[in-house]
Specification:
Length: 349
C-alpha cells in the first residue's frame, strides 16, 4: 500500500479498503505508550464542580465549592464542570465547525500549515518531528487570545471560535481564582502576577478517525498539559484516559459539561501540592472522535514560579526554578510528548 502522498491521518483512514495501519503508526516498539488495560468506566468517580456555586455570592456556597475544588485538584487533577453558563448550541457549534475544517480537502487544509510551533494558526498531523512513532491524530491549533485568529474556512468557524473562546476564558479565569483561594492565596494572585488579561488562550482541535487496528495505534501518548488550566469538550465519543492511582481510567463524555484539568504551571505555582496529571487518547475502529482542548496560560512574557507564600527555605523549599512562559511553551511544543519531561527540565536538583 503506497502512503507516501498521504498528508493527514484522515486521508490515510479514507483510503479504500484500508485494513491495517502502516508500521510507522504502530506503538508496539514503544513500551512506554502501549495500551495497558484500563478500567472500563469511572466517570462517576471524577469530582464534579458546580460552577454556579463556585461563583455564588452566597459565602457558604462559595466556600464549600472552593473546598471541593481544592480536593479535586489535590486528589485527581481532573474534574467535570457543570452549570458553567455556556450555551449548548455554542459548544455543539464549535465541534461541528472543527469537524467541517477537518473535512476540507487536503489542499485547503495545507494552506494553514504553520512554519513554527508558535504560529497563530497551525494545522498538522501526528506530533513533533523526530518521534519514533506517528499518532493517529490530525490537529488544528488556533491562538484565540490575546490576539484573536481564525482560519477563513469553513465560514462558520470564526463566529463560533469568537463566542466559544470568550466563554471558555471566563470560566477558566473564575476556576483559577477558586484554585488560588483553595491554596490560601489571594483569589486574584494569578490574575495579577501572570497578567491573565493578556493570557495566552490557544484552541487545540483534535481529529481521531476510525483506525482499522486500534490496539496497535495511539491517538496521543501520555502527557500533561503545560498551561494553568485546560477546558475540554468532546463530540460524544470516548477515548480519553486519565492516570489515577497507577491505573488508566476511561473518561466518558458528559453532554454540556467541560472536563477541566490543571496544568504544569499550577504544579509549579503550588510547589507540587497540586499536580498536573498524565492523560492520553486511545482510538477505535468505528467512530470519529473530535475533542477541543483549550489550555489557558499566563501572558507570553510572564514568569512562572512557586508562590512565595507557599514555600519556606527549611520546611518547604522551592522544587522548581522560575521559567518564562514563552520558554516553557517552546520547550513543550518542540519536543516529543513524553510524560512530564518538560517539568523535569526546570526541577531544582
Amino acid at each position: 500500500m503506497a502512503t507516501a502522498k498521504v498528508t493527514s491521518v484522515k486521508a490515510l483512514a479514507d483510503l479504500p479498503g484500508l485494513s491495517s495501519i502502516p508500521t510507522t503508526y504502530s506503538i508496539q516498539s514503544t513500551p512506554n505508550i502501549v495500551n495497558e488495560e484500563a478500567v472500563s468506566d469511572a466517570t462517576e468517580s471524577i469530582p464534579t464542580i458546580d460552577f454556579s456555586l463556585l461563583t455564588s455570592t452566597n459565602p457558604e456556597e462559595r466556600s464549600k465549592a472552593i473546598q471541593e475544588l481544592g480536593k479535586a485538584c489535590e486528589d485527581w487533577g481532573f474534574f467535570v464542570v457543570t452549570n458553567h453558563g455556556m450555551g449548548e448550541s455554542t459548544m455543539k457549534g464549535m465541534i461541528e465547525a472543527c469537524r467541517a475544517f477537518f473535512e476540507l480537502t487536503e489542499e485547503e487544509k495545507k494552506e494553514f500549515e504553520g512554519k513554527t510551533v508558535v504560529d497563530p494558526i497551525r494545522f498538522g498531523t501526528s506530533t513533533a518531528p523526530g518521534d519514533k512513532v506517528l499518532f493517529w491524530r490530525d490537529y488544528l491549533k488556533v491562538l484565540l487570545h490575546p490576539n484573536f485568529n481564525s482560519p477563513n474556512k469553513p465560514p462558520t468557524f470564526r463566529e463560533f471560535a469568537l463566542e466559544y473562546g470568550k466563554g471558555a476564558r471566563y470560566v477558566a479565569r473564575e476556576i483559577v481564582r477558586g484554585i488560588c483561594d483553595s491554596l490560601g492565596l489571594e483569589e486574584d494572585y494569578i490574575d495579577k502576577v501572570f497578567n491573565l488579561e493578556n493570557g495566552v488562550q490557544r484552541m487545540v482541535a483534535n481529529f481521531y478517525p476510525p483506525c482499522p487496528q486500534p490496539e496497535l495505534a495511539m491517538g496521543l501518548p501520555p502527557h500533561s498539559d503545560h498551561a494553568l488550566l485546560t477546558l475540554l469538550i468532546q463530540n460524544g465519543i470516548g477515548g480519553l484516559q486519565v492516570e489515577h492511582q497507577g491505573k488508566w481510567i476511561n473518561i466518558n463524555p458528559i453532554p454540556n459539561t467541560f472536563l477541566a484539568n490543571i496544568g504544569d504551571f499550577i504544579q509549579i505555582l503550588s510547589n507540587g501540592k497540586y499536580k498536573s496529571i498524565l492523560h492520553r487518547a486511545v482510538v477505535n475502529n468505528r467512530d470519529t472522535r473530535i475533542s477541543i482542548a483549550i489550555p489557558h496560560g499566563p501572558a507570553i512574557d510572564a514568569v512562572v514560579s512557586p508562590a512565595s507564600k507557599l514555600i519556606d527555605p527549611v520546611s518547604n523549599p522551592p522544587i522548581y526554578r522560575a521559567v518564562k512562559y514563552k520558554e516553557y511553551l517552546e520547550l513543550n511544543q518542540s519536543n516529543t510528548l513524553d510524560g512530564k519531561s518538560c517539568l523535569e527540565h526546570i526541577r531544582i536538583r
